[in-house]
Structure formats: structure tokens, C-alpha cells
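quick one: S-adenosylmethionine bound model?
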Amino acid sequence: MAEHLTVGRVAELAGVSVRTLHHDDEIGLVRPSARTAAGYRAYLADDIERLREVLAYRRLGFGLREIADLVDDPAADAIGHLRRLRGLLLEQRDRAAAMVTAIDQELEARAMGIRTTPEDQLRVFGAQLYEVIGSAYPATRRTEPRIAERIWAALGDARTVLNVGAGTGSYEPPDRDVTAVEPSAVMRAQRPAGAAPCVAASAESLPFEDRSFDAAMAVSTVHHWPDPVAGLREMRRVARRVVVFTYDASSPGWQDRFWLTRDYLPEFAELLSGRPALADLTRAIGGRAEPVPVPWDCTDGFFEAHWRRPEAYLDEQVRRAVSVWTRVGPSAELRAVENLRADLASGRWAERNRDLLDLDAAELGLRLLTA
Ligand SMILES: C[S@@+](CC[C@H](N)C(=O)[O-])C[C@H]1O[C@@H](n2cnc3c(N)ncnc32)[C@H](O)[C@@H]1O
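yep, here:
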């Protein structure tokens, strides 16, 4: 028999009880595939590898059902699992670091006798998304020149421009005097050397006097703001002109506009439920909305960017730079990706989406709001 480890030895090495290992065996999560001469359970190298994955996912807080789906994922080999685990662990580390920072800030405030608001106390559990996922952003997110052209044209002759929710600096016009606003320290830290100066603040409370800028712009960010209407009013207050690149999740049947949401990730709709309609956003700045088609070879890897290149969504790196995938959770993500992988292999995706293959650009609900 190949080299094996007894259940007692495995329990000792992994720091779990023999009872836990027996239970994992009974429910089919980790089945030792050999027996010793005396008939006891014995673990071979592959069993140990699977156990390591199960223990790691368990430590990350996944439930039994989710762990079973993850370790049985036919598309992930040992290297795939290690990469996925590494990504999840880095996310957990960044989330913990963000919580430590928030707790330190609250301790400091209390020491100074300042009472924190309910919003301050809860922010650490909610709006820290980019502290957690931000480090994956620059790999696939960058200025798409054809969209930038539209945004820069809409800025007109503005000389001073405020970029709100600026992230790593995409779409900042190189020929104007730009000031950036970005609440996430992780995103601010990734702005390239020589990028416009960046202020740590949020859209809902811009630390500038009325009419301080010729124009204010916000790109792919409004859907993250806790109060989009308040943020847009702030932009209107501090600038004479406002340009916003956002998404219309209110026109009838919008969920069916994009095959990824329609056929694989219906959970996307839940993320946007209760958010203001496009008409409310437009009203907040007193402007109008125009469609922005997404080119088939869009270079900014946002959620819809790969509509004619479906294989891209199988790539973990592409998904990690788009918050939707983190927000729907690992079970929905895994299901969507595996169903897409199967449909690509069987030709079902191509059959259903034949019409797209001749298009150079698609109308997927992206809008430019100008005022
Ligand atoms: C998808 S990124 C877009 C970044 C950049 N505008 C771009 O086009 O690459 C969304 C950004 O919005 C920021 N954000 C989240 N909440 C915000 C708020 N309340 N006010 C301003 N920015 C916010 C996030 O930290 C993140 O950097």
C-alpha cells in the first residue's frame, strides 16, 4: 500500500479531534481512501490534500454545504484551490486590518469624549468594501479611451475638475487641473506617482466650498455610495458642471439586458434593489442621461466589459477586480462560473448569444449623466 497516515496521526497533525475526522468521513466530505492491515481508516496523499482544503475553508468561516461545493468543484485542481484560498485569506486579512483601523479611530474619538454616530459604528461592517477588494483592482481596471472621450467631452471647457470616488485615478483628464476624492486608503495608496492630489473624503460630505470647481466627475462609483442622491447634490454644490458615468437599473426588464445577469447571476439584481432610479440620480444634478455603448474590446474590466468575450469571466483575476462578485458571495459566484463554463464547452452560450457576435458595441445600461 502507498504511504498512508492513520486517523490518529492526521488528527494530531491537523489539530482536530478524531471525532471530527470520523464525522467528515461519514458525511462524505473527506473519505480516507485506504485501510490499514488491521482495518483502520488510512489517509493517502490525495485525502490529505482534500482535508487541507476543507480545514482552510472551514477556518475561513464557510458552512458545510459551501465547503462541499468548493472542494468538489471539478474545474479547480490543487493549484486552483491554493490560489482561491490565498485570495480569500488576503481578503480576510484586509477586512481585519480595516476593522482594527476603525476600532482605533473609535477608541481615539471616545478618549477625546466624542460620541460616535450609529453610522460611524456600523461603517466598519459595511462600506469598507474597497479596503478589502481594492488591491485586486489595478490588474484589469484602467481608462477605456472611447468612454474617456465621452466623459472628457462632457467636461467641456472646465479647467478645474473634482473626481469623486476617484479610485486609482482612471479617467482623470491629463490636460486639466484635477483634485481627487477617495475614501478608501487601499485605493488611494495605489494611485500612480504623479497622479492628481487626492483627499480622503466621501461624496456625501465633500470638504469644499460651494462652486470651488468648474466641473465634478464620478465614474463607476455612485452605486457604492450609501446615499447617492446626497452625494450627487454635493457634487452639484461644489461644481458648476457635473458628469457622472453610472448604470441604469430601473428601466423595465433591465435584468435581461445582459446575458451574464439573465442566465448566470440573477443575484446581481438583489444588489441593486432599493437603490435610487436613474431618474432620481438625474434629478439630483438637474441634468440628462445618455446611453454609453460598451465596445466589444473594452479595456476597463468592469462587470459588463467582457460581454463578447465570455471566457474572461472564468478568470479569477477578472472577477476579483469587480465588486459584484464579492458582494454576491462565493456560492453564487461558483455556481455562475461553473454554469458558464459548461455552456461555453457545450456550445449553449454561443447558441443563445449568437446575435452578439456581430456587434462592435452593446447597449448594456451604462449611462452618462451631465448637468
Ligand atoms: C469601482 S471603483 C471606481 C474608481 C474609479 N472612479 C474608476 O473609474 O476606476 C469605486 C470607488 O468608489 C469609492 N467609494 C465608495 N464609497 C464612496 C463614497 N461614499 N464616496 C466616494 N467614493 C466612494 C470606492 O472606494 C472605490 O474606489
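The CA atoms of residues 290 and 368 lie 5 Å apart.
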